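ok trying again, last paste got cut off:
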Amino acid sequence: MHKKLMSVAVYCGHEFGTNPQFMRDAARVGELLARNKIRMVFGGGDVGLMGTAATACVNNGGHVTGVSTHNVMAKQEPVHDGLNETIVVPGVNERKQKMYDLSDAFIILPGGIGTLNEFTDIMTMQQIGESDKPIFFMNTAKFWNDFSNLFLAMQENGFIESSDDYTIHVAATPDELIRQILDY
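nice, full thing came through this time. structure:
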């Protein structure tokens, strides 16, 4: 029996991407987290999909915690000014650890290398038994299909012993995603 998921880290792009559905789904995810009283933890920036999800969560009365670094704030991402809490850590590894510590689960929206790095760290922790916190992929416009194919190729070629080592859920819509989180 799993406990109710009270706090979810949202990993996603600091850009909007090329498909307008990415932004619509990011906003809907933020809104649904707020409406279901699930705290959102994210990278703290007021840019791209991460800013979209956070703004929607804040605008719908949700609790949002941003975790950023000095370098990211200075060079790339202005901090979102509507957050309940902002935590600044020295570097990206501390950022990932803090977000992990503050979260019961993880939502993965479309994103780039940073998003890939964040969720593969958690998958590695699941594989070696250091984490059983679930990962929920928001597969907007089939964005994560190629990763799924790569994951299957890794398994077929003997680099992943068992998919049972991972707690992964995939949703095609934000409403399906929030149902999976609430039913977990």
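cool. The longest strand covers residues 64-69. Residues 51 and 173 are 19 Å apart (CA to CA).
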